[in-house]
């Protein structure tokens, strides 16, 4: 069973790499130990967005009178919300299977162990070992939920993101440990449905990778929604009492204070770790650092013929990043003219309400890089489309280099901003300056008008605020 290329893992990095390879004429196979589509399709990007859409609709219905519509007896059926989410996953999974077969890619199910000499041993469900070989091997095995030492997940009282997607009943209370994208999305979802939600974050603000103004705005919104937020805090220990409640002893490392919280469920959302153990890296001689595979700009490891992409290498653990890395890697293998990925022009999106979207440097990062900067903001409460929609929370913030007018970064929080960040990513890819954006006509009324208005604001030309 010899191939030109074998991709280990069928997530958004793996399957995209395999399809591109097949398009370029390579005899290609995918090895997958669980479900095609990886975490993103089965337990991440897709099912969470389905849940969040249900929460969004429920919130609209609760405030329908603001739009002149009366609704009575609105009820939440968590089982049906979960069922819809899983049905969407199944539909997407079926579509992916058809897409892979359409591209004549061989699907191999089982656990892959890489060997020297571009050999892969696959252990199937019956513990049979089948050997495969390829001229090129791409490792795209992804990552999993990080388990904190003092917070062992029992999948019942202390859960990870998989269990959070399939709870059989709505908990009355939940503590979410970690306030990155995963944590705040689940916080919004469960709070919207009526769960009392407490967020614990070790660092000094929620969404610590985003611009500080974005973090402050989201914390303000979440607090108004009734969420409790504890930053600079971590769990010292937990105790499950006779009433099946969890007592959580929390330490604040900023003030040196301790307090005790009670909850029905704890969701650990404290990040991910790469699936690089026990896949043959040591035997093959592939180098790693802090558990992640070391690669060059074209995703080559130190061993010729072996490559790695996605969450197993350094860089942002995002589906669209893994996909781009896979395409770049395959096109390099085929000796096509390709260029390394610009990791400073990757959009980040968080799908709680209000949504968050960003690209480029934060204000703090731009200053640390030595830039002299101009900052512009435009708030959605001054935007006609936002007022008409009844979604006026948030703003667009842009950061420019004073010397050349280079767009260093853009940060948004508000309704639908994940859909308009792409125009800024494109502008930065084209090295667009402040002048180019100011001279671009944006349609009215739209949410995207806030982009050009924020740029105008940076240069004291804003008309509508």
Question: What report would you give on this structure?
Answer:
- With 465 residues, the protein is of the alpha/beta class.
- Helices cover 32% and strands 26% of the residues.
- The chain is built from 14 helices and 24 strands.
- It has helices at residues 14-23, 38-43, 45-62, 78-102, 161-164, 181-193, 212-224, 281-284, 319-333, 363-368, 384-389, 417-429, 434-438, 449-458, and strands spanning 2-8, 28-32, 106-109, 111-115, 119-123, 129-139, 143-145, 158-159, 173-177, 196-200, 228-230, 233-240, 246-252, 257-263, 265-268, 272-274, 288-289, 292-293, 306-308, 348-350, 355-360, 373-379, 395-401, 407-414.
- The strands form 6 sheets. Strands 1, 2, 3, 4, 5, 6 and 19 form a 7-stranded mixed sheet that branches. Strands 8-15-9-10-11 form a 5-stranded parallel sheet. It has a 5-stranded antiparallel sheet with strand order 20-21-24-23-22, sandwiched between helices.
- Strand 10 (196-200), helix 7 (212-224) and strand 11 (228-230) form a beta-alpha-beta unit.
- The mean pLDDT is 95.
Write the layout of secondary structure elements.
Elements lengths: L1 E7 L5 H10 L4 E5 L5 H6 L1 H18 L15 H25 L3 E4 L1 E5 L3 E5 L5 E11 L3 E3 L12 E2 L1 H4 L8 E5 L3 H13 L2 E5 L11 H13 L3 E3 L2 E8 L5 E7 L4 E7 L1 E4 L3 E3 L6 H4 L3 E2 L2 E2 L12 E3 L10 H15 L14 E3 L4 E6 L2 H6 L4 E7 L4 H6 L5 E7 L5 E8 L2 H13 L4 H5 L10 H10 L7
Parallel strand pairs: 1-2, 1-6, 2-3, 6-19, 8-15, 9-10, 9-15, 10-11
Antiparallel strand pairs: 4-5, 5-6, 7-16, 12-13, 13-14, 17-18, 20-21, 21-24, 22-23, 23-24
Helix pairs in contact: 1-9, 3-4, 3-6
